[in-house]
Amino acid sequence: MTDDLLVTMEIPPDIAFARLLTAAAETLAARKGFGQRESLRFQLTVEEFFLCLVGLAEGDKPLRVVFTGKRHVLRLAFAFTATSLALGALNVTAGIAACADGEPSHDLGLLLAGKAADRFHLDHKGEKSFFLEAEVDRAYAPAPAVRVPAGLHGPYTVRPCLDPAQLAHGAALALAVYPVWHCPQSFRTPGKFADRVEDGQIACVAAYDAAGQLAGLLPWSPCSERALFFSGPFVFVPPDEAGAVAGLLVDGFIGAVGRGKYEIVLSFRATSDVPAEAFESLGCLDLYRDGACCPEPVLFRHLREDAGMAVWSRPALVDFLRDTYDRLAMPREILPVEASKGRERRASLLGCTLDRNRDLGELRPFLDGEDMADNLAAHVCALRDKGIVNILYYMDLSRPWEAALADDLLRAGFTPNVVLPHGGRGDLVVWQHGKSH
Amino acid sequence: MADAAIWSCGSMASLIDLVPDHVREFESYTPSRPDPVLMRQYGVSHLYRLNNNENALGPPPLARQAVAAYAPERAAIYPNGDAYDLRLALAARFGKSPDQFLVGNGSCEGIGSVVRAFCAQGDAIVTVDKTFAVYEWVARFTGIEPRLVPLRDHALDPGAMLAAATGRAKIIFVCNPNNPTGSWWNRQTLEAFLTALDGRAVVVLDEAYCEFIDDPDFPDGMEVLERHANVLVFRTFSKMYGLAGLRVGYLCGSLAAVDIVRRTQIAYSVNALGQMAATAALADDAEHIAATRRMVGEARGFLGGLFAAMGLEQVSGAGNYIMVRTPVSDTLLYRRLMREGVMVRTMTSFRFPNWIRVTLAREPAMEAFARAFRKVLDKP
What we know:
The structure holds two protein chains of two kinds. Chain A has helices at 18-31, 36-56, 94-98, 108-116, 164-177, 190-199, 239-257, 315-328, 372-385, 400-403, 406-411; strands spanning 5-11, 63-69, 73-81, 119-126, 129-137, 157-160, 203-208, 214-222, 227-232, 234-235, 264-270, 280-289, 292-302, 309-313, 332-336, 349-355, 360-367, 390-396, 414-420, 428-433. By secondary structure, chain A is α+β, with helices and mostly antiparallel strands. Chain A folds into three domains: 1-139, 2-Layer Sandwich (Heat Shock Protein 90), CATH 3.30.565; 157-302, 3-Layer(aba) Sandwich (Aminopeptidase); 310-437, Aminopeptidase, CATH 3.40.630. In chain A, the strands form four sheets. In chain A, strands 6, 7, 8, 9, 10, 11, 12 and 13 form an eight-stranded mixed beta sheet that branches. By secondary structure, chain B is of the alpha/beta class. Chain B is built from 14 helices and 13 strands. At the A-B interface, strand 3, strand 4, strand 5, strand 8 and strand 9 of A face helix 2 and helix 13 of B.
């Protein structure tokens, strides 16, 4: 977006340049109006990741770094090469092990970086090339208490919504009306939701009544290069009109994205207002709330003909995939992949996000390692210790090394549940950890 | 899962930094896989292609002969660079100068040439939201604003299109008859539209399906362009003439207009076999056109009856296609029909979600479609 601030540098792998980077990070945070606390967290993230990557650098090849200052987030990105990448200390479970004896560990820097950032992501670009991104969020006020509008009356119309005040109001309304599971996390800080729309990360259509009052909302954002993830439709009209407004919102959504670059739309946060005929079912997530199982449907819809693709699978997953693809009438060539043997590094790395409001933990594999089975178990244990009941794991079937982890997942108590077509670089299998039930 | 932003994974300086925004945002079109691949994917031994409005009767007899007589050695020789013989044949057929014709690799090439010829950055084209997508696509990846006017009752709305043709709108695309709705402007509507426009913009009259219409009230673009120098007529050999595999289309306009478009048209883009077959096709098309119209009429009646009996909304005007609103997602229906060996066109990308378009073809194909359609909708 036009008001993004970008700082791009090529830095020699020399710790003497750390100060240069933190100064740039501080300036960027200040210019984008971030508070002292976020600025310091961003500087810490930058410094510690840089120091870590200097230690991994090969020869004098410079590190390429990009800082991006957006309205709602500060982001750093490193592109680097490494022969042996050991980032085990970035696991959320690593804190206890690294500092168990009370002595600073050599992994302490990574530990700090991982904790200072709100999230990070590691992508293996092939061979020795990696891409690391980390983000620090702006602090926003929580959603205010709002009252559902009364006296809305048709005819209702749907159009794209860009007005920050209306977006924030719509987010707060949805949060007030719908169960927390169905609401995107950003609805809890409506200002952030509006800023992400302004930034182009989220798009949405809104329904308006005859007087121009907000009557509904349907937001979406990319979840992969080929797929959009939507939430809603959120409808604020009386029940007898809810179906019609929901239909208008879905039509507006499909109309807006139908001729675009994306091939498919997905959701496991669709509300009960969604028109039954508008989407297909991929299955259900068996979520537990207050001790009871609440199946949440996972919906999708292609935007164009499915061209088919190849996916990798371990034998243990083949029957599940065959049944799924057969039910969906979706052509996929299932290619066998061998179990990992002689893994190239000791420590694996899992991305972990936590959503206490939804009682949800989500795991993604970033790096394979000899300790993957133990690491999975440790993550499950850590999430359970935090009281998280619902644990999901995402496996991208376009990556052989990810598909090869199926046996580890089964042993760790995960069960394949649904397939999200094009949900990642290829199809994504959503695994659920089932032992808590 | 979607709360987390999609990670850019490669947004560092790279090839993409060299790409203009309007190209960066544009996704390349993915055509369907070759038939043998599709048949293997969907486990069928035969595939009825009802997705591209191809002519099930194939090309006219003389065009077939031209293709059969093509000597393989001639493949080593470049084609004529501007389809000289074909333009002579077109000129004779329509009573015009050969220089009023430009032949392209399908009419899509002509669309690109016209946009390049008349539009610069900041200009706009006007088209409708639910029509042949290439007008909008070419505009978008050329950095030109596409102004999309909603259809009204499944037809192009002349008043709304005129209202959109303001400021830097340089070209108006009128698909007549419209693909996929089959609606068309009659003589009076088109004439009133052109009169009101008063030459403020170029009008591309896309008549890809005009040969399927025998209504005397259908306006003949070749005649219209004689009165309106801003009209360019597009036609193709891919539909009625059954030469889709050879990719030959053409445009016709005033000498001045065509001279301008020629400047942005790539020469040598039409292959020699296509030029020969198209030239031959023009020479004996009367019986072929009559037979095709009979086939299309019968198929329209058959499928129209099927959809009516099933209580499904349908839209069917001119052209060799029919649209039907489906009770399930169009893309789901596509996959299920593919498993029955029938390929249709999903309409979500035409902004008709949950509609499919079916090519009107020969009886066996229509019956196969009907069987499969009933089966996958569980309405035997």
